[in-house]
Write a structure and sequence with these properties.
mainly beta; ten-stranded mixed sheet; eight-stranded mixed sheet; globular
Length: 304
């Protein structure tokens, strides 16, 4: 596994993923504050992406949406495009109905492009189910986020290897996950806060399928990430989240970005051997943020 987080002011040579064709699925969602709660003011979908009916988990007014892929999986040369805007003062919880599955991608990779914009005082919790890459799968994910200095973003992700007929893990070709975060400035320009690149590319030849050695995933098979961008992020919060991760059967570390426009980013990375353990670890961290920042209960989406 190769992973890097570039702070503000640094220069990265990573290029965006190339286009692989017309979108197999497209979703556009804009949320605003209205009448004491958040509502969708624009919604568009076509192809193999859509959302279920909106719901509210508590009386905070936070709007919840579940993204659905009726096709069930991403295949070779599939392109999915997601555009989300949360306007000033609005709050959105966005999750998925089930795991994102990447099947064989002969000829070309599958790709997801997501654009996110947060207005002043806006809040987004992005909590998808795990990403599962199966045998001979190649996947690229390009996420571009622009936040207001007074907005709040909490984004979690879990990557797991899929089952293969030979019952061996890490039979996928590669996973490339790129997240770029910019902070909107007073005159409209957006300064770079962080550029996070994750590349998992299993070995070939005599050690085919092995990414668990020293310098790769340290003997673990599953990767979990939590990204937080908020003016309240500081070293004390990083220490609190690290302490919450400590009791779990995982190797975890927390890093802070530079501060841009008064807001700071935090990245927690964890390695474990199963999805459930990473769900518990990330759930404990997000529950801490929900309680101390908003007085909300831990997420209980009751999907299963």
């Amino acid at each position: 596994m190769s992973t890097s987080t570039t702070a503000a002011g640094a220069r990265s040579t990573a290029a965006p993923a190339a286009a692989v064709g017309s979108p197999m699925g497209e979703l556009r969602l804009r949320v605003a504050r209205h009448g004491g709660r958040s509502v969708a003011v624009h919604q568009f979908h076509q192809g193999a992406l859509r959302v279920l009916r909106p719901h509210y988990l508590d009386d905070s007014g936070q709007l919840g949406y579940v993204m659905v892929n009726p096709g069930g999986a991403y295949l070779g040369a599939d392109l999915y495009v997601i555009d989300v805007e949360v306007e000033a003062g609005a709050s959105l919880l966005l999750t998925t109905q089930s795991a994102t599955k990447i099947y064989r991608t002969p000829g070309s990779f599958a790709e997801q492009r997501m654009s996110i914009r947060l207005g002043e005082g806006a809040r987004l919790e992005l909590a998808p189910d795990q990403l599962i890459a199966y045998r001979e799968a190649s996947y690229r994910q390009d996420t571009r986020i622009t936040v207001h200095p007074a907005s709040s973003l909490v984004m979690s992700e879990i990557v797991t290897p899929g089952w293969s007929p030979e019952r061996t893990a890490f039979q996928y070709e590669e996973l490339r996950l790129r997240t770029e975060i910019r902070v909107e400035g007073p005159t409209g320009e957006a300064g770079l806060l962080a550029l996070d690149n994750v590349l998992v590319k299993p070995r070939r030849g005599a050690q085919a399928g092995n990414v668990t050695g020293l310098g790769f995933m340290e003997g673990r098979s599953h990767l979990g990430s939590l990204l937080v961008v908020d003016a309240r992020v500081d070293q004390a919060l990083a220490d609190e989240l690290h302490a919450l991760a400590a009791p779990h059967d995982a190797l975890a570390g927390v890093s802070l970005t530079a501060t841009v426009g008064g807001t700071t980013g935090l990245v927690l990375r964890a390695l474990s051997d199963n999805t459930e353990e990473l769900n518990r670890l990330l759930g404990a961290c997000t529950a801490h943020l929900r309680k101390h920042w908003y007085g909300q209960e831990p997420l209980n989406l009751r999907k299963y």
